[in-house]
Each structure stands twice: as C-alpha cells, then as structure tokens.
Specification:
133 residues, three-stranded antiparallel sheet, 7 helices, 3 strands
Length: 133
C-alpha cells in the first residue's frame, strides 16, 4: 500500500489495477518528463507535483477519502515534496514498474526527484485506498 502524507494527514492507496494504471499513464509520463528535465527551475519542480496528486486522486476514488488533485494541492507544501515523490516511487514499485529496493540517490530523494533510470521502466500506478488522519 502506498502512503501519502500531506501536512500530517495520511492517505493510503492500494496497488493500482490495470484500469487505474491506464487512467494514470499520462500523469506518470508527465512526472517522469518533469523529473528527467532537471533544469533546476521552481516551475519545473512544482509542475511535477500536480500529476503525482492526480495519480493519488485516481487511487483515492471510491475510498473513504475521495479527494481531488486540487484538494490535495491545497493541503501540500514544499515540506511535503519528499513524501509526494516517495508515494510516486512506491506506486511504481507496487505496479511492478520499478524494482523494489532500487536505490534513489539521497540528494534526489530529498528534492523529491526520482532518477531517470528508476522511472524509465514504465507507466503505471495506484489503486484504491483510504485515509487515516
């Protein structure tokens, strides 16, 4: 189960079904593209959050906490960046699109970035879940 914590509120998303992976594919590609750009701009960094939170929205649909990406964005701050991208990495792992335990450089993880090698393996994410906060 992928865990997303924003401003102290935790949301749990079960592994994605193929249907949810298909719905999330464009957002997964958008996150990978943004993370692989690495131009160092704030716009680049911040623009990668919304697709991850749209992926979370897909996973939270039909749960006790069906929040939209907009609602999640309103809860998130820059302090949440590592948690947002850890969530993205977990979703990829659970979907089989990234090998479990594959290392991500600590500096990249601190900035909420996933390496190109780590994410180039696929497109897919999430499933149902629920919040406990």
């Amino acid at each position: 189960m992928a865990q997303l914590t924003l401003d102290g509120d935790s949301f749990t998303v079960a592994p994605f079904t193929l249907d949810k992976l298909e719905r999330a594919a464009d957002d997964i590609d958008a996150v990978n593209a943004a993370l692989n750009t690495r131009d160092g701009s704030w716009k680049s960094m911040v623009s990668s959050y919304r697709p991850v939170l749209r992926i979370a929205e897909i996973g939270l649909a039909g749960t006790d906490t069906p929040l939209t990406a907009d609602e999640l964005m309103q809860r998130a701050s820059l302090r949440d960046a590592p948690a947002i991208f850890a969530f993205f990495t977990t979703v990829l792992e659970e979907a089989g699109l990234q090998q479990l335990g594959e290392p991500v450089a600590e500096t990249e993880a601190a900035m909420g970035q996933v390496s190109a090698e780590t994410t180039s393996r696929g497109k897919g994410n999430r499933s149902a879940g629920k919040s406990a906060a």
